[in-house]
Amino acid sequence: MKRIIIGISGASGAIYGIRALELLREVPGVETHAVISPSALTTMGAETDCTRDDLKVLADELHDFHDIGASLASGSYRTAGMLIAPCSIKTLSAVANSYCDSLMIRAADVCLKERRRLVLMVRETPLHAGHLDLMSRVTQAGAVVMPPVPAFYARPTSLDEMVTHTVARALDLFDIEVPGVSRWKDG
User: What is the pTM of this model?
Assistant: First the structure.
């Protein structure tokens, strides 16, 4: 069983984290642990019809954002890593500065210290030098910064297809293949 943590922060784009949980629900041998910030719940309400109760159904375990004593806060609790989708600049800053005041940031910090995969789907534009510095710092610490930029070679016909493809590419970084995703082909 491969365990993966899905964090959803308050940036616009809550659908990325929700879609990750939806896609992973269909992949055998993957156990999902979700951590949702209070701001993410507000954003989800504005951008989607998904509720906290829906996330409880999608995730194998939904953790309390403030419970820094949860299993995910310990390096001895083995996971394949963590995807924060979307990742707000506030969350990026907390990860870059090891400011572990919540389970989301502590779990991300554990991934870095244990040399596990941490993928941050940073959702902000335009970027200023401070944002770029934070991205550089988390990259130097071992994280992967993957802004949710759609790929058009798959010729998406809907927003749903673009979101699914982007999330599937993020899950590729954990060696988790989502069936039915278009990939680049030679010629």
Answer: 0.96
